[in-house]
């Protein structure tokens, strides 16, 4: 939950600080894109600061996760452009390598041999469903970043962040303070401004292409 809050607001803000070249190449960023991040980051800060579960260790691990996520998202976009492949093709080559890395790392962090479990159709079904969902999530990440940009993908993450908080409030009665609610409004306002700007930018680009074709 805490990682979702941090990851929603900061992946590109932190990761692109050391990958500025990729950022400008992929997004052709200008001041408007940066300004839209201000209300979003401010909203994340309000929710994090007034969260009773906020602590240093959790923030440290969330920050490391954000750093890795930033690099991963940027590479997803650059590699699709570099190798001229679509999202499915890139995932086809990346998934086996990721599985091999996890296979080597997991035994050192998880008690795999000591887990008390029995193979059953129900357990096998849950494993298959979990794998299918994970595949669809990864495919959607590759597709969104490939068709748009890492910044647009993160804006979708901001929406997920707001839905997570509001869902916890309405479904599980998770308390939300006034400051946290203001943080949600700030985040939503930043996302809304970004969407409106992108729609206007897309419309202007389409109009320019039509005028160029006529000429």
Molecular structure report:
The chain is 83% helix and 0% strand. It has 215 residues and is an all-alpha fold. It has nine helices and no strands.
- CA distance, first residue to last residue: 54 Å
Classify the secondary structure makeup into a structural class: mainly alpha
Q: β content, as a range?
A: under 5%
Over the alpha carbons, how many angstroms does the gyration radius reach? 20 Å
**Average pLDDT rating:** 76
Main sheet attributes: strand count, strand direction, barrel closure? none
Q: What is the global morphology?
A: globular
* DSSP summary, beta strand count: 0
Specify the number of helices: 9
Number of domains: 1
Order of helices and strands: HHHHHHHHH
Low-pLDDT runs: 11-15, 17-27
Helical proportion, percent range: over 70%
InterPro entries: EmrE-like (IPR037185), Sugar_P_trans_dom (IPR004853), TPT_transporter (IPR050186)
Protein name: Solute carrier family 35 member E3
Main location: membrane
Keywords: Membrane, Transmembrane, Transmembrane helix
